[in-house]
Write a structure and sequence with these properties.
Blueprint lengths: L23 E2 L5 E2 L5 E6 L8 E2 L5 E2 L1 H13 L2 E6 L2 H9 L5 E2 L7 H4 L2 E3 L4 E9 L8 H5 L4 E4 L3 H10 L6 E4 L2 H9 L5 E5 H10 L6 E3 L6 E4 L2 E3 L3 H17 L1 H9 L6 E2 L1
Parallel strand pairs: 3-6, 3-7, 10-11, 10-12, 13-16
Antiparallel strand pairs: 1-2, 4-5, 7-15, 8-15, 9-12, 9-13, 9-14
Helix pairs in contact: 1-8, 1-9
């Protein structure tokens, strides 16, 4: 997802002042949530099955269910807010949000301006291929006329490395639903995006005849929850809660709810 650099002021906190840098901690460094604090989580709810909106505007999805389980395990309060993708990280940096949870890939570039929890989901980029197109390798991908990506997602970054960031063959869209709609309408040859999202689409639209290709050129990536730089107490609180949810088996239950095996994938 978005790899644009954001300007940020690093927050330097000494060990002595740790509890004042984004959470409450004991002298031993244990993260203790403030029972009165509501952690404001921003997300771009156009990335099913991780986050999407119901017709009445409610935010739902894997990320929401996972964070809800974490909040119960860690005894802290949360609220989700939908925003445009390009506003999420600025909201975190300027204090309008406490966390970003929106299928955010952990990258070295992002670590310069924010911190991350332990990974909570592993994905790779895959190619969504309509019926009649033959794509089996990166070389096949390079020969296509139009490759659709979402602006600033890691699919954009991956394809830009292969074709060149200014290549006229790259067609950029604001959201996953928009780029897939263009593929359905015949305006694109293929789409490259996060595996879990694309497989979810294929599972729910089997009649369209789309298949997916996992290319060896695409490396594995991990999603994490973004926290403000230096907010070690909140980071530890979330990691502790995530660990509890995994160990209790709740993570597996949530995972199976959203990620039952989807067909149509080629190796």
């Amino acid at each position: 997802m978005n790899l644009t650099k954001w300007l940020a002021t690093a927050v330097a906190c000494s060990a002595f002042a740790l509890s004042a840098c984004g959470g409450q901690g004991s002298q031993t460094g244990e993260a203790k949530p403030d029972p009165n604090k509501v952690y404001r989580i921003v997300t771009n709810a156009e990335f099913a099955p991780f986050e999407s909106r119901t017709p009445d505007g409610k935010i739902e999805g894997f990320d929401v269910d996972l964070m809800t389980a974490m909040s119960k395990a860690g005894n802290f309060k949360i609220e989700f807010k939908h925003q445009p993708w390009d506003s999420l990280f600025p909201a975190l940096q300027n204090g309008d949000a406490d966390l970003v949870m929106s299928g955010v890939t952990i990258t070295d570039e992002r670590k310069q301006t924010m911190d991350f929890t332990d990974p909570y989901f592993e994905i790779t980029q895959i190619v969504l291929v309509p019926k009649g197109k033959d794509v089996k390798s990166a070389e096949d991908l390079k020969k296509l006329n139009k490759v659709g990506v979402v602006t600033g997602y890691t699919g954009d970054f991956t394809v830009s490395k292969m074709l060149g960031s200014s290549s006229p063959k790259i067609a950029r869209f604001e959201t996953v639903p928009l780029v897939i709609k263009e593929l359905e309408n015949g305006g694109l040859d293929v789409v490259v995006s996060d595996s879990a999202v694309i497989l979810n689409y294929v599972k729910n639209n089997s009649s369209k005849g789309f298949t997916t290709i996992a290319l060896p050129d695409f490396t594995k990536e991990s999603y994490g929850i973004a926290t403000r730089k230096g907010d070690a107490a909140t980071q530890k609180m979330l990691n502790d809660a995530l660990k509890k949810v995994r160990e209790s088996g709740e993570y597996d239950k949530i995972h199976s709810k959203y990620f039952a095996e989807a067909g149509g994938q080629k190796k």
